[in-house]
Design goal:
Blueprint: E1 2-7, H1 12-23, E2 29-35, H2 41-49, E3 53-55, H3 59-67, E4 73-76, E5 93-97, H4 111-121, E6 125-132, E7 142-149, H5 156-181
Helix pairs in contact: 1-2, 4-5
Length: about 190
């Protein structure tokens, strides 16, 4: 399956995808990487890996570029805007969220904001959720969730590190699951 990666930051998830594709632990192929921020480190990494990489400021620019690559699956990898795909990709956008949806999710809940909220609530577990994205933040069908145990002494940064380690396993697993089962399996 031909995939595009949308990112806004350092590209840590792209690093993970690239490594997993190289070892055969993740299926599919990354055809293009896009960022809404021209200075995103993830674009530099993408070029280093040999992927076409572009700054695309908004949904229209992203969709125009995706059209050139016959993309079948869009992977949101720390993309911090609400992406609106073209009609043929409406059910083909995956996202990873750093909590166990439906907890600690929705507009404005990303990164350390999530982990601070988890810590403030005194949660004993957290984790990550790979889900399909739709027009509302974090409400699309869930593909995979991974849990991590928390300790009372954990800082939000400790929680973030544990959850990111889980994300590195969960996202490739979810992609492989989607490729095996097909997109329609997850949508009612």
């Amino acid at each position: 399956m031909k995939m595009a990666v949308l990112l806004s930051g350092s590209g840590r998830t792209l690093d993970n995808f690239h490594e997993r594709l190289a070892t055969g632990a993740m299926r599919g192929s990354i055809e293009v990487v896009l960022s809404n921020l021209p200075e995103a480190l993830g674009l530099t990494k993408a070029r280093k890996y040999g992927y076409p990489a572009f700054h695309a400021q908004d949904n229209a620019a992203i969709n125009a570029i995706l059209q050139e690559y016959e993309i079948q699956l869009v992977l949101l990898a720390g993309y911090l805007k609400l992406y609106q795909p073209p009609a043929h990709l409406r059910r083909a956008v995956l996202n990873i969220h750093p909590s166990l949806i439906p907890a600690f999710c929705g507009a404005g809940m990303y990164g350390l904001r999530v982990h601070r909220a988890v810590k403030a609530r005194g949660c004993k577990v957290s984790g990550c959720t790979v889900h399909f994205a739709n027009e509302v933040y974090d409400e699309g069908p869930i593909v995979i969730q991974h849990c991590v145990a928390l300790d009372d002494a954990d800082t939000p940064e400790d929680i973030a590190a544990r959850v990111f380690a889980a994300e590195c396993e969960a996202y490739p697993e979810a992609i492989n699951t989607v490729l095996t089962r097909g997109l329609d399996y997850f949508w009612p």
